[in-house]
Amino acid sequence: MRIESPRTGARQRNEEAYAALPAYGAARPEGSSYIMGGCGIAGVMNMAGEKVCGDRIARMLSTMSERENGLGAGYAAYGLFPDDLKDLYCLQFLFDDEKAMTVTEEYLKNRGAIVRDERVPTQRVDSLRPPRPIVWRYFFRPDPRSEKFRTKEQSEDECMVEAVMGINGAIPGAICISSGKDMAVFKGNGHSYEIAEHFDIARYDAAMWLSHSRFPTNSPGWWAGAHPISLLDWSVCHNGEITSYGVNRRFVEMNGYRCSLLTDTEVITYTWDLLVRRHGLPIPMAAVIMAPPYYRDIERLDENGKKLAYQLRATYKEAFLNGPFSILVGRSRPEITMVAMADRKKLRPLLIGESDDGKTVYAASEECAIRSVQERAETWEADPGSPMIARVGEGIVRRGIEPPFGVMDR
Questions:
Q1: Of 138, 197, 290, 304, which is the most exposed, with the fewest CB atoms less than 10 Å away?
Q2: Is the separation of the CB atoms in 386 and 344 below 8 Å?
Q3: pLDDT of residue 150
């Protein structure tokens, strides 16, 4: 299915600038480039777990065409695979050549079992500039007893984190773009409508979709650097610029993560994994850590709230994300969950929506993205630093307008 940009004028204005920009595949680019702009994010989830066709998220994202310049776009799908595959880790890769693929396969075989592998279907899009990496997926079961892992008998999740970091950091021409269960990421170096057509997003049905159209700041446009950035079942779409990147990067690297994707969104993804999966914190508490209240606002809390807020700031001060941002965060375990939040000053736009029948939740940078697929949706703005949380089977459990510790959900 071909998905065209609804704003052809904006598309035409970008063509000359787009043609002059460098193109990269899965191989890590040298250096970086600085291009000012603002990205677009969009998400949709059926809260009953029913399937949503990929053309809906593609329409939402491509509606915001002024928010992209062709240097990256991507889609994350949750609740994607049949029962016989959904409990396996789905490793989706970009390969520059067959040599990188062969080395990666040997790496995986030494650390577990490849249950199934297949080429990810793609279509030729003439306007999508080369190089176009090979896109391949492996359904994988790690063996925690393998001598190739640094620590024996660690959890399967820790095995997968180590494997992803090892491949992305050490195998030239190979990048793992998603590694979770019952989810996958489809992304590349192009406009949102080009990437949707390249992967034929409309062929897929999923319970939740997150998406991102890129206008890079401080990092080059390349296939692996496009959002969503994913690790295990986490995926993050980010509009903004994290000025505390250096501190945040050191924080996650001190905790065993390896940054290799040249984007501040990578450290956001690893921070969510560290705080929620490894440290076991509730999602709203992790959000407070990354976007803490101002001290003047902390003083207005009750005594228990004050004590908790000060303890979190002292314990996790390196996880504080400074700078403007709005993010969409997805995870598939224990249930498919969407998180949408903005920085504590609300310097980047974010709008939440709910369908008139109460079955579907939306999030986007602009209201037009929601209206393009749900004209009668109820919409509202989340408070600065306050996450909206929706979960399959439970609905909207936090609207994003509650006080910091008002709804302390898992």
A1: 304
A2: no
A3: 86
- Taking the whole predicted model, whether its pTM rises above 0.85 is answered as yes
Pairing of strands 337-342, 388-391: antiparallel
CA pair distance 2, 55, nearest whole angstrom: 9
Q: Which pair of structure tokens corresponds to residue 269? A: 């993804």
Provide the residue type at 44 as one letter: V
Are 111 and 138 in contact by the 8 Å Cβ rule? The answer is no
CA 136 to chain centre: 19
Per the structure block, which two tokens stand in for 163? 């494997």
pLDDT in tens, 340-372: 999 999 999 999 999 999 999 999 999 999 999
Residues ≥6 apart with Cβ < 8 Å to 312 = 285, 288, 289, 292
For residue 404, give both structure tokens. 């910091």
CB 214 within 8 A of CB 227: yes
What structural domains and CATH numbers belong to the chain? 8-75+189-399 (3.60.20.10)
Question: DSSP state, 11?
Answer: H
For residue range 190-239, list pLDDT tens digits in order. Answer: 999 999 999 999 999 999 999 999 876 666 778 999 999 999 999 999 99
CA distance 12 to 35: 19
- Least confident range from 11-25, 46-60, 224-238, 309-323: namely 11-25
* Beta strand extents in 5-88 (DSSP E only): 40-46, 52-53, 73-78
Residue 217 is predicted with a pLDDT of 62
Of the residues 39, 159, 176, 237, only one is catalytic, namely: 39
CB–CB of 387/340 below 8 Å? Answer: yes
Q: What is the mean pLDDT of residues 305-323?
A: 95
Main-chain dihedrals φ then ψ at residue 4, nearest 5 degrees: -90, 155
pLDDT at position 18 over 70: no
Cβ contact 185:177 at 8 Å: yes
245-254 helix and 264-272 helix, angle to the nearest 10 degrees:
40
Active site residue 39: yes
